[in-house]
Amino acid sequence: MGQKKLIKFAAIKEYENVLEYPQGMPGKWAAYFHELEKGTINIELDSLAVVDDTNESSSVSNKKPLVLELACGRGEYAVGLGRMFSNQNFVGLDLKGNRIWKGASIANRDGLKNVAFIRTQIDQVTQYFAQDEVNEIWITFPDPQLRLSKAKKRLTHPKFLRLYQQFLKKADGENNNSSGVVHLKTDSPNLFLFTKTVVELYGLTLITATDNLYSSELMQSDKWDDRYAIKTYYEGLNIASSNRIHYIQFKLDKELPIELDEKLKEIIAEFEITETHESLARNGKQAME
Predict the structure, then answer these.
(1) First-last CA distance in the chain
(2) Is residue 238 within 8 Å of residue 186, measured between CB atoms?
(3) If one looks up domain 3-288 in CATH, what number appears?
(4) 143-179 burial, b if ≥16 CB within 10 A, otherwise e?
(5) What is the mean pLDDT of the chain?
(6) Which of 65-69, 155-159, 179-183 has the lowest mean pLDDT?
(7) How many CA atoms does the CB half-sphere of 122 hold within 13 Å?
(8) Which of 75, 197, 213, 270 could crosslink 247 through cysteines, CB 3.0-4.6 Å?
(9) Which pLDDT belongs to residue 132?
(10) From residue 86, how far is each of 64, 80, 101 by CA, in Å?
């Protein structure tokens, strides 16, 4: 491991806004952000109160909507959203500590007390949040796992969506609010099409879908949302060479029958490509050399 990475790993161990494989966090995020906002040093996770909608007598005042960014990388979305919405709390989750260091450092520098990070594997996400604790999920430029054999590793595969349902607040169809909403932003046409297929097959509520997020037509319409304009480091790399950013927003508001998974596999086999994300990255790098 390089010296720079070692320095970053050491730094995040001292950051109050970074939790590495934290134990016993479900239900405690409001209390945690309450302490973070106060500037508490060495926050004791074990002593944090569990706060939920039934605990109205709690002394914890920081019961703000909680938004989760998965595969956050350098945390551009968690930080960007934190700047835009002081009345919400944001958690970025990723395994790469040296990437998290970037977003956590910026949040510390700018005094963003509503932004924090978890270093852990995404398939362990249910260990960190209680039922109905998270309002929204953003998935920003994840590895599209382009091989058909790796489809179950895609973060919008029903296997992962079922995990999210364990802690994502239930969607309110009548008010069409943001609860229960999942956002995917990607430069992979294949992952975009895969996700649309999942939404359609399992009968989830589609809110927005576009294969050209930055089209002038959309940007000038009343459907444009300033959150779309936040750009990540990986977005700038344009690894997929698509020259277009794809975006889909849907509500995780239906059960996901496991018996449909085999049908999904049959459908996507008709349009899948086999080149891996890693080989695309290598090809892009070679083209620049």
Answers:
(1) 25
(2) no
(3) 3.40.50.150
(4) bbbbeeeebebbbbbbbbbebbbebbbebeeeeeebb
(5) 88
(6) 179-183
(7) 26
(8) 213
(9) 95
(10) 9, 11, 21
Question: What CA dihedral angle connects 47, 50, 56 and 61, to 10 degrees?
Answer: 60
Residue 209's CB: how many other CB atoms inside 10 A? 15
Cα separation, 156 vs 272, whole angstroms: 15
Q: C-alpha 251: how far from its chain's center?
A: 14
Give the pairing type, strands 246-251 and 205-210: antiparallel
Contact in structure between 175 and 135 (CB atoms under 8 Å)? no
Scan for tokens 């349009």, then name that residue.
271
Residue with the two structure tokens 């106060």: 38
Integer Cα distance of 227 and 50 in angstroms: 30
**Catalytic annotation, pick one of 143, 222, 225, 261:** 143
What is the maximum alpha-carbon separation in the chain?
A: 61
- 143 catalytic residue (yes or no): yes
With contact defined as beta carbons under 8 Å apart, do 66 and 133 qualify?
A: yes
Alpha carbon distance 46, 126 (integer Å): 18
- In this prediction, what percent of the chain has a pLDDT beyond 70? 87
- pLDDT tens-digit map of 199-241: 999 999 999 999 999 998 888 888 899 999 999 988 877 665 6
- pTM equals 0.88
Q: Which residues pair with 153 in a beta bridge?
A: none
Judged by DSSP in three states, 19 sits in strand
Indicate the domain borders of the chain.
3-288
pLDDT at 96 (0 to 100) = 93
